Amino acid sequence: MNELEDPSVVSLESFSLFPSKVTKSDYEFGKTLGAGSFGVVREATKKSNNEEVAIKILLKKALEGNQVQLQMLYDELTILKKLHHPNIVEFKNWFETDDKIYIVTQLATGGELFDRIIKKGRFSEDDAVKILIQILSAVEYIHSRDIVHRDLKPENLLYLTEKEDSELVIADFGIAKELKKGEQLIFKAAGSLGYVAPEVLTVDGHGKPCDIWSIGVITYTLLSGYAAFVAETVEGFLDECTSGDYPVKFHKPYWDNISDDAKNFILKALDLNPQKRPTATELLDDPWITSKVCRNADLLPSFKERFDARKKFRDAVEIVKLNNRIRKLRQLYCLGSESDSDLRSNSAVNISNDTLEADLDEKLKLCAISNQDRTLTEQEKLKKSVLTQNAFAQIVKAATKNKQKIYDYRTSHPATPVDNSKENVID
Q1: Which CATH architecture has domain 12-106?
Q2: Is 308 annotated in the active site?
Q3: What integer pLDDT is reported at residue 245 of this predicted model?
Q4: 56 is in an annotated binding site
Q5: Which fold is adopted by the domain 108-427?
């Protein structure tokens, strides 16, 4: 049997369903790229052909008895084995030792999407459209195979190489789900606050349209350089996206030079009613995507002003989080000499939590959006959001209330396109 056949109980022994001929000795391991509650991700080179790859290393002791995480791991392996698309990170192989599981994927060395934009000499709407075509093509592909990513965000959009014409790929299918049929709904909440769709926060279930919402949020930040939503709580997020005529505001002066077609594209993707949200295929035919009009005005100076300092701060936070996670893994799971080499932190950068906190206020001065609508209270929200954005368990508690809030908004705010003759649209 080569594919997982939906076992009712997932166990570590069941990984024999994914046979592999490679072993750990076939790879030379490099630096640590990330860490989580169950293991780390490291760069590696396959010795036989010098191919650079990324390897997720999962600790069996951490996974043992955790049925939810085991099922997610099986889902990820099953999904990755089925996907073959130029804009999706490629699954290579998997292997195991007595105490670890290793998942090998394509290594993207060209950096995250927004890092790449910061390095460019200029960036326009036309450049943004080229990026969106790649993202939409990948999402159209996975949706056609009844797979929902559920965690589309800038950090999971990577360039394969540093070449100018490098492909952009979607990575991290760790919480992706394969639907038994196209319209099946998922009722367990998952995602990243700030990019997750509102229906994920209700009791009604969510499906493919949740990825479209995330694309709308990504497009908003891609064109403006700042986040569409900054709340660090579910209630705060729902207040943000239901408090006005539209889920997002196009603040002056940052959106003045951006086309109405682009704004309408965003509003279509951010329709609070998932059933009215366009599909990836429909968005590929959207006027903003298909237009032949040249939209070459340079957006990069203002983008960098608002995004660059915030990105540097986020990177500092991630370094602290990575080292803390690795330290915790070592404390919880004593795995002998092999763990010393696999659970390795990048100690070249050693930043303490105290140092990070002391430097936080200065960083906020640099990365806060300068429009007058941003108050000191909102900056404090941003501070908390950066540090707690992955704390997602809270979303189930307010499910019934959230459902009613979104329903009330839908009934009182029918979706309409941007019309610059209405002063309250461009706020």
Answers
A1: 2-Layer Sandwich (3.30)
A2: no
A3: 87
A4: yes
A5: Transferase(Phosphotransferase); domain 1 (1.10.510)
